[in-house]
Design goal:
Shape: elongated
CATH topology of the largest domain: Fumarate Reductase Iron-sulfur Protein, Chain B, domain 2
Distance between the termini: 57 Å
Strand content: 5-15%
Number of domains: 2
Order of helices and strands: EEHEEEEEHHHHHHHH
């Protein structure tokens, strides 16, 4: 049996959060998400957590598990020992238990216009891209918006308006896309005190990303573009 200690908080009933311990039978191949389902189905039907794909694709089940931000559907119970402590993502309001309010996260994302901006007529062909230009996006397009990096970043706590590493990586994804014609707008969106300049290179985002992405490199790339525009007037 493994002891699973789950953060509990219901704003309608509780003044502060607390931890509830449950005992989950060991089972080969069991993930943390499956352990939570065992608790939900056999011990406490009121426990709240978020999930969707169960295949490490959607990012919905991101949590703080034994001191590290992880996807619960991709984390094996066998790798965590006899005591598993699960908390919600930090720096976001808790709706209930392990479910956090991500509205502000997605509001910031929408403000960045996360789509290709290109008003030239498309005609009857797709917008072509060379293999070399496509290769620049190979890692950037893999972000699943799980917000592990946002929760791990110390500056999303000290500056609630900070765009954050996940969304700056998404901004870089469109800045680096040869088909996107809003290059100047992409640079301007990041070149603010709540944008790339709020990052102080703690590298937490790299450590926790379940897809092995590098938001710090994206932020550095956008900083370079902002500096070149300031001193040369060129948008590159």
């Amino acid at each position: 049996m493994a002891t699973v200690s789950v953060f509990r908080f219901d704003p309608e009933l509780d003044e502060r959060g607390y931890f509830d311990d449950f005992h989950v039978p060991d089972r080969e191949g069991q993930t943390v998400l499956e352990a939570l389902f065992h608790i939900l189905e056999h011990e406490d039907g009121s426990i709240g957590f978020r999930y969707a794909c169960r295949g490490a694709v959607c990012g919905s089940c991101a949590m703080h598990i034994n001191g590290r931000y992880r996807l619960s559907c991709a984390t094996q119970m066998a790798d965590l020992g006899d005591k598993v402590v699960i908390r919600p993502l930090y720096h976001m309001p808790v709706i209930r238990d392990l479910v956090v309010d991500m509205d502000k996260f997605f509001e910031k994302y929408e403000r960045l216009r996360p789509w290709l901006v290109n008003e030239t007529p498309l005609g009857d062909k797709e917008r072509l891209q060379s293999p070399e230009d496509r290769a620049k996006l190979d890692k950037l397009v893999d972000c699943i918006l799980c917000a592990c990096c946002q929760a791990s970043c110390p500056f999303t706590q000290t500056d609630p308006e900070y765009i954050g590493p996940a969304l700056l990586l998404k901004l870089d994804r469109f800045y680096s896309d040869s088909r996107d014609l809003a290059t100047a707008d992409r640079i301007e969106a990041g070149d603010t005190e709540h944008g790339v300049w709020r990052c102080h290179t703690a590298y937490n985002c790299i450590e926790v990303c379940p897809k092995d992405l590098n938001p710090t490199a994206s932020i550095a790339r956008l900083k370079g573009a902002a500096i070149r525009r300031q001193f040369t007037g060129r948008v590159e």
